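Summary of Year 1 activities. Much of the first year was spent building the evaluation harness for sequence design. The harness presents a backbone, in tokenized form, and records the residue chosen at every position. We chose the following record to illustrate the format because it has been used consistently in internal testing since the harness was completed.
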């Protein structure tokens, strides 16, 4: 249902249910980065935060750097701000890229300031 339901709200509820059950893995969540609904994409970013220390996760999240949705971009910047270790420098580069693209958005400026 989280992948294939025609109803975005149903996909979102199914996703959070799977998260609550603790059965999600990075591969499944990565598939949802391409979802047609921005709410599902934001939820996928939030769930991916648990793997944000992994460089592969940060690289996977880079797909959102080109996106146009400011709310998705803001969620991404906040998630990237939680990275540490080897993934941190890659995350900082992405945060700067995304922030430059959405400079007119006050929420983005605040998120980038907090995250950097």
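For this record, the design step produced the sequence shown next.
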């Amino acid at each position: 249902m989280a992948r294939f339901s025609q109803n975005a709200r149903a996909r979102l509820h199914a996703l959070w249910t799977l998260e609550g059950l603790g059965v999600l893995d990075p591969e499944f969540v990565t598939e949802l980065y391409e979802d047609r609904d921005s709410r599902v994409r934001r939820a996928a970013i939030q769930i991916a935060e648990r793997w944000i220390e992994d460089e592969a996760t940060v690289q996977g999240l880079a797909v959102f750097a080109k996106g146009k949705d400011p709310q998705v971009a803001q969620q991404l910047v906040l998630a990237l701000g939680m990275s540490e270790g080897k993934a941190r420098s890659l995350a900082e580069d992405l945060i700067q890229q995304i922030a430059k693209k959405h400079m007119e958005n006050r929420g983005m400026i605040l998120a980038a300031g907090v995250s950097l």
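The two ends are 36 Å apart (CA to CA). Quantitative recovery figures across the full test set are reported in Table 2.
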